[in-house]
Known about the structure:
Layout: H1 2-16, H2 22-46, H3 52-77, E1 100-101, E2 106-107, E3 113-115, E4 120-122, E5 127-129, E6 134-136, H4 141-170, E7 174-176, E8 181-183, H5 200-232, H6 237-253, H7 268-273, H8 299-314, E9 316-320, H9 335-339, E10 356-362, E11 366-375, E12 381-387, E13 391-393, H10 404-409
Antiparallel strand pairs: 1-2, 3-4, 5-6, 7-8, 9-10, 9-13, 10-11, 11-12
Catalytic activity: L-cysteinyl-[protein] + hexadecanoyl-CoA = S-hexadecanoyl-L-cysteinyl-[protein] + CoA
Transmembrane segments: 21-47, 53-73, 146-167, 195-226
Main location: membrane
Amino acid sequence: MGMLCSVIRFENLHELKRLCHWGPIIALSVIAICSAMAMIDAVLWYWPLDTTGGSINFIMLINWTVMILYNYFNAMFIGPGYVPFGWKPENSQDCMYLQYCKICQSYKAPRSHHCRKCNRCVMKMDHHCPWINNCCGFQNHASFTLFLLLAPLGCIHAAFIFVMTMYTQLYNRVSFGWSSVKIDMSAARRDPRPIIPFGLSAFAASLFALGLALGTTIAVGMLFVIQLKVILRNKTSIESWIEEKAKDRIQYYQTRETFIFPYDLGSKWNNFKQVFTWSGNPEGDGLEWLTKEGCHQYSLTIEQLKQKADKRVRSVRYQAIEDYSGACCPLTKGLRTFITTPCTEEPRISLRKGDQILATRGLKHWMYGDKIDSATDDGNRIRGWFPRRCVEKCLYDSETDQPLDKEKKTR
Length: 411
């Protein structure tokens, strides 16, 4: 019993540590600033509580804050749901359609992916979100999407309060001359005077909060539109990318096969109900899924295996010609490399002269790949971004002394 309590306390402490990250700190700070300033502006200078409209407005502001925080913490602490350690399909023959995760010591269930940040296989993984410091997946997709909807709506309300407060307080204080504009911040807007006068600091704070509210409305609103699109197609962001790569693979090899995404149920409403339910719990168990007619549970995983094999064939071997420390923005590798560093949380890998890397994708000044014959203590492959100028393409395999192009053609 004591051991069980210790495990529970450890897990609770581990979940609370999610707050100690730049993403949640910034997100919660923005929510706190916009909510607090909207309430202060409304009560003191725009719509006092001694009026019916002011009381309703104040209750609405509190309601926005509570609903935003409720869904935010749900998305963070409930989490996406993970594939159980050691999981495998009931029918052992189905293992041939699945990838095996060495870290979790289990097969990856359909629609699941291993997250390097969480170090677990996540059910129906959409992406790892730094703002909640957790993955968005099967169990928290609805809460995360509701947060993306409510945050812009609350910010629009707050922005209206900020604009109206500054307008009403400055309306009688601004005077225009032939060549000047005068603002008398000592002039009272209403009688009786407010408890705290609307001074220069209040104006600056309201203007700053307005900028945060408008920026949040645009940025988070765009993320909500993206999430809604994939939900209505019963996809995730990762699965949309897999579908695009499937089209590219088929076109590259000129095969006659047709890839059909298996989880789109045909109706947007039916797709919507897979994520949003009256009970608050998504449909299914996160391991088995409803599929459209003509497809089966492993249609997507079979395509993933094909893409993984194709990735190995089309990858290119490089050798390091310069040392690289693994810095995010290396000053010593040129100005263009410094400026064009990838805007992603994916890791950078340090290089020593002579290291060999299997590059799988790249940008103009950066490349992404795996170090050959290297792994961490927990079995993870060492992979990430590195500057393109630090490597050169290998013309020959160091083990067989055969041209790499010829090797790939014969695979």
